[in-house]
Write a structure and sequence with these properties.
about 270 residues; globular; six-stranded mixed β-sheet
Length: about 270
């Protein structure tokens, strides 16, 4: 059976080191952590699909349920580690992704599981990693909860110039960025009457370490990108930050549901 699920993947950070130092104590801590997860998951509509060693694989009907579960679990695990030296505490890294899974018996297989597992490896011990589009959705959910209570607020989502244009061989990437803008417009209209403004920035190619690594040794690709920059250079992170601050400021009190290009003129072509 193939279906769309929110996938939760977790493992214990530094597990091998902890076992080598204190096998019995680490196994007791692992059993206690599993008991915490088993006790919490039923309140969030999920199920544990597989456990192997120190890892846990679970699925949920929605990303919101998965995130709420992950946050609750990390909070309870943190409480269990109070008084335990950091080097000796058992901390979990969690990754969450929404994607297709293949259900075989009670187990989950497929690329969606692989993405969640790779994301879990990127999380800090005691932290949660979310695939990007779902990060935006989940963050907005929790931000809006606070802003509804206080009756005001401003949210600036991060899309991309990929949310404003279409380029070949990038359907998945552009689809997620267009989705962020669609959510921004819909939520912006819905929450404006409550005093909450929701907009987005759409950065172009920004001079960051990630972009530098991607383009290292690719002179032709860099030259092609520079041809598309009307301003004659790549953007800077502080320029994107300035646009975010502007959209959060009172100067944009009449701006709702906008995707603001910060792209050096790329989308003006």
């Amino acid at each position: 059976e193939r279906r769309l699920s929110a996938i939760f993947a977790a493992d214990a950070a530094s597990y091998s080191r902890l076992v080598s130092q204190d096998e019995a104590g680490t196994l007791r801590a692992l059993a206690a952590a599993r008991e915490i997860m088993d006790g919490v998951i039923r309140h969030h509509g999920g199920r544990i699909a597989n456990t192997a060693g120190d890892s846990v694989l679970a699925e949920f009907p929605s990303v919101v349920d998965a995130v709420d579960f992950a946050v609750a679990v990390q909070e309870k695990l943190g409480e269990a580690n109070v008084g335990v030296p950091a080097d000796n505490s058992l901390q979990f890294r969690i990754g969450i992704h929404v994607g297709d899974v293949i259900v075989r018996g009670s187990d989950l297989l497929g690329d969606g599981v692989n993405v969640a597992a790779r994301g879990q490896a990127l999380a800090d011990p005691g932290g949660v990693w979310l695939s990007f589009g779902h990060t935006t959705l989940s963050s907005a959910k929790h931000e809006l909860r606070v802003m509804r209570e206080q009756g005001s607020g401003a949210i600036v989502n991060c899309s991309s110039l990929g949310g404003l244009v279409g380029l070949p061989q990038r359907a998945a990437y552009h689809g997620t960025k267009h989705a962020v803008l669609g959510m921004t417009k819909s939520a912006g209209v819905e929450y404006a009457p409550r005093g909450i403004r929701i907009n987005a920035v759409c950065p172009g190619t920004i001079d960051t370490p990630m972009v530098a690594d991607m383009l290292e040794g690719q002179a032709e690709a860099m030259a092609e990108i520079m041809k598309q920059q009307s301003i004659g250079r790549l953007g800077r992170a502080d320029e994107v930050a300035a646009a975010v601050l502007w959209l959060c400021s009172p100067a944009t009190s009449f701006v709702i549901g906008v995707g603001l290009p910060v792209d050096g003129g790329f989308t003006a072509h």
